[in-house]
Amino acid sequence: xxxxxxxxxxxxxxxxxxxxxxxxxxxxxxxxxxxxxxxxxxxxxxxxxxxxxxxxxxxxxxxxxxxxxxxxxxxxxxxxxxxxxxxxxxxxxxxxxxxxxxxxxxxxxxxxxxxxxxxxxxxxxxxxxxxxxxxxxxxxxxxxxxxxxxxxxxxxxxxxxxxxxxxxxxxxxxxxxxxxxxxxxxxxxx
Length: 190
Known about the structure:
The chain is α+β, with helices and mostly antiparallel strands. 53% of the residues lie in helices and 14% in strands. It has four helices and five strands; from the N terminus they run αβββαβαβα. Strand 4, helix 3 and strand 5 form a beta-alpha-beta unit.
């Protein structure tokens, strides 16, 4: 009976040691994950600020990993320095679109994904913001040649020059019901 008790007691001690080593390993992994998360957030925030700066905007990303919350603050002009920055809801359509593109590019810089799509990102942008955003997007895409980028836009892309990295495909204009009616009427008249 004593030998059985001793063997069970030894097994329990071994299990406690094993659990302690697992807890230490888990804490070490959690610390590494926290460091990794903070470094990715810092890189994303720095890239976001740099992309905004190309349009002379200022902005910050405020990550709260504990609350799983992100605040995006943008000040659309350096001339407004010292004035209160705005969240995205209070920006004009073009400012919001450019800020969103800057945020997406910053996210893409920390995410490894082989295919990235962006649809109608420039719909609310004025020509200046659109031109700067396209230059940013294309230069970011050319820096990461290990992925494929697909951009869909209803806007004219005449200012973009295709090259070995940039291919452009233009879809035919949609056939609208009014166009079909007028062509049918023309055919009936002839």
